[in-house]
Amino acid sequence: MSDRPMGDQSGADAHAFLADLEAILDQRLRERPEGSYVSRLTARGPRRVAQKVGEEGLETALAIAAGDRDEALDEAADLLFHLMLALRAVDLRLADVVALLARRHEAR
How far apart are CA 64 and CA 18, in angstroms? Predict the structure, then answer.
């Protein structure tokens, strides 16, 4: 088993994509386009978005416990997407989470 990502994106490219995805989420939240998954899910309220984070977290954990790398990757992508969306409900971004992790690491 490799510690390298399955795709061909470098770490910098992956981080840039997350920033792009966050911008797309912000745009969808602002414009609420008809037919958008983000629009439909957030229209159901922050509790429903939080529930999706829980569901995807459980599915990720179960895939990992089963040793299913492909399923774990798929579910982790869903989890990260829904977590990024849920963070926006409390005016947070992924960068805020990363900054906290960095501060915790520096405190060691």
Answer: 23
- Going along the chain from its start, the domains and CATH numbers come out as 15-106 (1.10.287.1080)
Closest CA to 60 of 85, 82, 87, 86: 82
pLDDT at 4: 46
Q: How far apart are CA 50 and CA 72, in angstroms?
A: 20
Task: Say what percent of the chain tops pLDDT 90.
Answer: 84
What pLDDT is attached to residue 52? 98
Closest residue by Cα to residue 46 from 29, 33, 63:
29
Give Rg (Cα) of the chain.
15
Q: Which residues touch 56 (CB under 8 Å, ≥6 apart)?
A: 75, 78, 79, 82, 83
Instruction: Supply the pLDDT for residue 108.
Output: 86
pTM, to two decimals: 0.86
